[in-house]
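Sequence in, structure out. First:
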Amino acid sequence: MHIQEVAKTGKIGNLDCPGTLVSGPIDISQAKDGAVTCSVTGEALDKVKGVVLEKGTDRVSGKVKPAKDGNSATLEFDPENLADKEGTYSLDLVDSSGTEADSGESVSLSKQPFIKDVKSPGTLDTSNPALTLEGKNLGQLNSVSLVSDNGGGEFAGKLDAGTDKPKPAAPGKSAPARGNQAR
């Protein structure tokens, strides 16, 4: 008689993502260190090598960082890849062979502004301070604030030279922001 150990596949019991209320969308503004993270608990999560959010043919890949015991993990997604998505996406688990399995969990996504970069001409001219924001869905922004790294305070700004809606220079890619205060 030969006994063969059957490898467990990952199973999720609980999924918790930032900013979600009951059935609300993931809040990508809660990204930390360049990633939107979700916490999961379950079984054999150390066997999961990746995750995919899927809605029809639309797919967003993510990373898995399992705890040593395999009973919990952190899922990481690039917020730029989530910014344009809308609707309910199922969460698939990917094993080491590349096989995907539906976890039975899903998340809700909505279009949200995402600032990828802030371009500055160097030192801001206090008579006409201007920055260029690059990202996605910037037309959803109502205001911009600059916060000093050294605790010098917050500076309010105006979008697109005083209008309350930015006009992207390239569709969905960048919009100028002009500050109304500078020190």
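Second:
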Amino acid sequence: MITRTELLVWCETYLRANPVTEDTAKRMRRACELCATFTRGGLPDESAVSAMVKHLEASYAPKTIKNYRSYVLSVMRLAASAGATALLNHDLVRKVRVPAPNPVAWYPEEYERLVSAARRLKGHCAKRLDLPRAQYLSALVQAAYETGLRKGDLFRLTKDHFRPDGSIRLRQNKTTVPHTCGVTPDTLEMILAIPYYFPLRWDANPRTYSELWRDARKIAGLHSGATQQIRRTGATDVWIEDPEKSQ
């Protein structure tokens, strides 16, 4: 049977076979380490995963707990397929109920304040010292609003993705569904003016990216939100103008 140490080894085996983002890999390792502390006799089983889930309920959001549960079960499924342990019965593992999401978007005037705030940012991007933060965030904000793309997809965009008319054809990373969208001529000009092949990618660590948004929200007088709220704002504005077009 798989032991606590082996669980962590299988976690690394899973990550080598299934490349994920750095943040996801970190959370998966954390989930396996946590689950290992709840094993009985060194054997991660349904009760161990259930104990981990119950432990997390006191301080973690349901969606995060569900992800942790899925991470461990995915690793255990890989180990079972190699004959290292028995396949876990998911029906015996404590379930996680995730409330229906309540999407939040900015009002049009709040979005306009954010656009103005982005242009007023001081300083330069970490690791892109020749790129003003105002230039980067202004392009990112308008691209997010006009395309409706998620942050990860915006980061993946290269200059080659943009056709002369500003249209884009991209297979979305989360859904794997091909998506056609585009930006206005003004936004396209802003993006192409950024001297990098991946113009909208943030090359520094997540902390400095959060600081970038925090500074912009402070200027705009907004308490929270980032690219997710922008894409929802864009979708809402499209629906208001033409409900059929938004379908």
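Remark: Confidence is low (pLDDT under 50) at residues 238-243.
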